[in-house]
Amino acid sequence: MMLKCQPTASHFIDGQYVEDTDGKLIECIYPATGEIIAKLHSATPKIIEMALSSAKLAQKSWAKLSGTERGRVLRKASDLIRERNHELSILETYDTGKPLQETLYVDATSGADALEYFGGLSGSITGEHIPLGEDWAYTKRIPIGVCLGIGAWNYPTQIACWKGAPALACGNSMIFKPSEMTPLCALKVAEILIEAGAPKGIYNVIQGYGDVGASLVSDRRVNKVSLTGSAETGKKVYASAAASMKHVTMELGGKSPLIIFDDADIENAVGGAMLANMYSTGQVCSNGTRVFVQSGIKKAFLKRFAERAAKIKIGDPMNEETQFGPMVSEKQRDIVMKYIAKGKAEGATLICGGNIIEGDGWFIEPTVFSDVTDNMTIAKEEIFGPVMSVFEFDNENEVIARANNTNLGLAGGVFTNDIKRAHRVVDELEAGTCFINSYNDAPVEAPFGGVKDSGVGRENSKAAIEHYSQLKTVYVRMGNVDSPY
Ligand code: NAD
């Protein structure tokens, strides 16, 4: 029987679908029902070899095209993604369980934004002229070579494009390995790039568990690794990449603070905290999961949050009215339930939620804990689910010190109507991406990434160009060589 979302084959290499059923089985499960929707195979050494030789060969001629020519392909792919947004969003929903109300607006569309943006920049990637008296030097911004993208499961289309678009714009080729949890969407990105005119081999997708990622990271033909994943995996991948001095971009986890002062607009602060904790069922790396609320408004904030949380529409992700879907997997649901149990056991006050929703799929309720103290497990570890922890604070210096008291540093936010305080606080936050009176906006025009254990490098914006290219310096002597020998 044909499964609902079965792709033509597991991998997309050298412009076509390729299968090797000797690879370990990957069952793709729709998180809202538990139904198997596709069966794929992890890449065997034969598949890995095909992907590497194809990407290596294709990169050379791709890099010889002008930036404008490369950009044209990316912009065409962006147009095709927008035309097919509806079908791609349905696939994203099957892959992740995120509701269509989200996927129709933020997944394929943000992938299209990245292809459009970097397609536009591609013709402007240049070096500089450096006058040195009568001599001079110039720099060329050249590709890095074969780039490896490794994805997490929460934004499979977006991650495939956020890595692929700048890599291709700079004249690199890419091998993308999606998360084994969400293998489907990146295959569509690869198909669309070929349809848009990309030469075969420029963007290969191969499936696999961590071992496939690890074997690609250690291969000398890979020149750069860009990982989106947990800090734990990031450290392993970074160390392995160092053995052959590969460039890296690491987009890792977070435990980000969201600070709400007494003078904040309470409806906006509650809305921001909801976006920072409940969007994509809490499975967002930059989420503001440590919500510090100043004592004067804590009671009002919690009351309003609970009222609004009670109205969240939970259910069938394919219904466009639904606002909150299941967790991506049974395993992830169980991890989150363990954290909820720890929160209760360590003395936090459960304000709302906390339970599994019985029935098909891996649903849990939007959950809020109050009276959380800095040493509790839920205050320290990334949960990656819809669990918000509320802390109370009295003054600015105290809250900044507490907010920064973590090894992670992906994001941070502040809600206040005092404009000077807002800037003062974000200046002090040890985070790569900050928000003032907002949370979790990630437009392609602005850099995104973390500090401390949350990662290195930046995605999106002009900054990404520096992470997908390198400089070659050429010194030019106009006169005779003045040699002492
Ligand atoms: P994960 O670290 O378990 O896996 C990420 C990817 O790495 C998967 O494709 C996996 O197969 C691969 N992998 C695992 N071990 C590997 C190894 N040794 N070598 C090479 N590849 C290996 O993460 P996850 O559970 O898929 O995603 C959740 C995590 O990702 C969270 O910590 C979240 O915060 C983070 N994340 C970060 C961002 C960001 O942009 N900063 C975005 C989304 C998710």
From the structure above, extract its key features.
about 475 residues; 6-stranded mixed β-sheet; binds nicotinamide-adenine-dinucleotide
Task: Describe the protein's architecture and organization.
The protein has helices at about 45-65, 65-85, 85-95, 100-105, 110-120, 155-170, 185-195, 210-215, 230-240, 265-280, 295-310, 330-345, 375-380, 395-405, 420-430, 465; strands spanning about 10-15, 15-20, 25-30, 35-40, 130, 135-145, 145-150, 175, 205, 225-230, 245-250, 255-260, 290-295, 350, 365-370, 385-395, 410, 410-415, 435, 450, 455, 470-475. It starts with 10 loop residues before the first strand and ends in a 9-residue tail after the last strand. The chain is of the alpha/beta class. Helix 3 crosses helix 4 (about 100-105) and helix 10 (about 265-280) packs across helix 11. The strands form six sheets. Strands 14-15-16-13-12-18-19 form a seven-stranded mixed beta sheet, with helices on both faces. A six-stranded mixed beta sheet has the order 9-8-7-10-11-21, sandwiched between helices. A three-stranded antiparallel beta sheet has the order 5-6-22. A hairpin with a 4-residue loop joins strand 3 (about 25-30) and strand 4 (about 35-40). Nicotinamide-adenine-dinucleotide binds next to helix 8 and helix 9.
